[in-house]
Amino acid sequence: MQRMQWFLVLLATLMFSTLATAQSDAAAPLVLPPGAVGVVTNVQGGLSASKAGGSPRALAVYANVSEGDVLSTAAGSYARVKLSDGGELILRPNSRAEITRYSYKAATPASDGAVITLFKGGLRSLTGLMGHRNPEQIAFKTPTATIGIRGTEFGLLECKGNCADVMPKGTPAPPNGTHVDVSQGSVAVSNASGLVLVNAGQFAYVKSATSRPQQVPPSRGVRVTVPSTIRQDPPPKPQTGAAANTKSSAPVTAQQSPPATTASTALSSSTSDQSPPAAAAATGTSSTNSASSTSPVATDQSQPAVPAAAGTSSLSSALGNAASLADAIAQLPASGAGPTQQAAAPVFSSAPSFGGAPGSSFSGGGGGAVSRN
Predict the structure, then answer these.
(1) What is the pLDDT of residues 318-338, one digit of tens each?
(2) What is the CATH number of the domain that holds 204?
């Protein structure tokens, strides 16, 4: 009897510890300047942003991004953006993604909504607070499919003859189309031809907009990998003016670890991305001492047409086949204990400071966009 009591105590302790860890890992929201929806926290190589009809602008660490920005990475480059709900987007080399719509207000969950469109290349997303409290309001789009999420970390890769560098040397390039891998939680991959649910450790592939999404075995799945160093937060930005006389701050240095450019087909369900470094070096360096950067600006403005979203007051209205997708998301299992209490939001000025220890990471999170020439 005494042995059973000790066992129950140990079991209860482990359950409490797991729950506490899940809650402490919940992303803390950011408070950004008006109009900003995210901030660049790490660049390895070159990153640029552009809007419809505008010229690309180089982005460095601490640069803000806003709704409608199309983010582009140069060859051999990786970039990480934290969104205002604590979510996270990490772009692979030669990638192009748009923050098509993004709305987050901590006090008004009814206004939640996000649509992220991947035109080419790859990204990893880690869900923020919106993904825990209103997952049906978040969607990712590619030219071939729509991905609805539920408290998720997943990878998304859009290949159009441009994914040869994704696989290890000597391995055939992934076939053209959309590739999905899930590390945590679940996603629903859909288009006009059907829908498939993908859970942690599983993979999916969509050949075209008219092909039914399908699960694929790990031997055929493609996991989008990123270097672990890209998840590091930058040191606090130096204070200027009067603040500098009363509070010292460590000098800012860009995260310039050599990027890794491989993805694997072994595809374990582990959530850590430890891709081996490749021989190719980043094609530029980022400057974090000013809003400008010496990084090369990706100027490729071509992108495949993606079905336009009609707004995201709900996932149903944002996506063409939302009725089935909404039903599917409702069936998805919850991915662990979501945050029960929202963490205090750090307030940032035009250049936010990050006080977290290097290596700390946040959680991130759907698609339709206009075509641009």
Answers:
(1) 444 444 555 655 556 554 434
(2) 2.60.120.1440
